[in-house]
Each structure stands twice: as C-alpha cells, then as structure tokens.
Amino acid sequence: MMMLSNLDIEESMFVQNLIKDMDEEKQKTFAMMYQNRRRDTTLILVTTIIGFFGFAGIQRFLTNQIGMGILYFFTGGLCFIGTIVDLVNHKSLAFEHNQKVAFETLEIIKGWRS
Fold first, then answer.
1. Are 52 and 81 in contact (CB under 8 A)?
2. Which of 13, 63, 68, 71 could bond 97 through an S-S bridge, CB–CB 3.0 to 4.6 Å?
3. Which sequence spans correspond to the domains of the chain?
4. Are 10 and 95 in contact (CB under 8 A)?
5. What is the predicted pLDDT for the residue at 2?
6. Could you report the per-residue pLDDT of 10-61, keeping only the tens digit for each?
7. How far apart are CA 22 and CA 112, in angstroms?
8. Is the dihedral of CA 77, 83, 85, 90 positive or negative?
9. Max alpha carbon distance in the chain (Å)?
C-alpha cells in the first residue's frame, strides 16, 4: 500500500477495503494499474478553473464523461453554471471516477487467475 500514499483518506480506505483479500503480488499490480488510471483532485480542480478562461469541460473528459464534456464545450460550461458546480464538487467528481477505475482494475486483476 506504500505505492498509494498520495490518496485522500476516504479514497485510501475505499481502496484498502477492495484489496484486503489479495496477496501481496496482486496488491502491487493493482496499485500500479490504479495509480496510472486514477485522477487527482488537484488535476480536476485546475482543469475546472481552466473552463472559466477558455476550454470548458476538460474535467468531464478526464473523468470519462465524454457527452458532458462535449456539452460543456459547446455551451461554455452550461453558461458557467455547470463549471461553478464542478468547481464546488471537484473532489466528488474525482472520487466517483476513481471508484469506477478501482472496480475496473479489480475486475482485471481477478480475471488474470494466476
């Protein structure tokens, strides 16, 4: 679990609960895969702020919400209201995306059957 030391407390508890029954090798593999695919809350915050000055919706593209990203892009972040909401909720946007990534990574690891 040392490789995932930069997680928030809530995310760290979530991930620890997911991998508690894995052997050490699978935990390391999970950590490497998860670390590469997860999104940091700071990245979501910065890309949301960028939405006020140019390209709205980057945060939605980063969290694999392509439809919302396109909508934000063409509507100026839904006239900045959606961008403001995302600015307030940037941590939950990142956490929800990271939960999905963790479950996907867990399924990949389980599918390997080593």
1. no
2. 63
3. 40-109
4. yes
5. 55
6. 999 999 999 998 889 999 999 999 999 999 999 999 999 999 888 999 999 9
7. 13
8. positive
9. 51
Backbone angles phi, psi at 24, to 5 degrees: -65, -40
Give how far Cα 105 sits from Cα of 20, 38, 59, 91, Å.
Answer: 14, 10, 21, 21
Encoded tokens for 21:
């029954």
Look up residue 54 and give its two tokens.
Answer: 């140019």
Q: Which two tokens stand for residue 51?
A: 């939405």
Three-class DSSP labels, the chain: CHHHCCCCHHHHHHHHHHHCCCCHHHHHHHHHHHHHHCCCHHHHHHHHHHHHHCCCCHHHHHCCCHHHHHHHHHHHHHHCHHHHHHHHCHHHHHHHHHHHHHHHHHHHHHHHCC
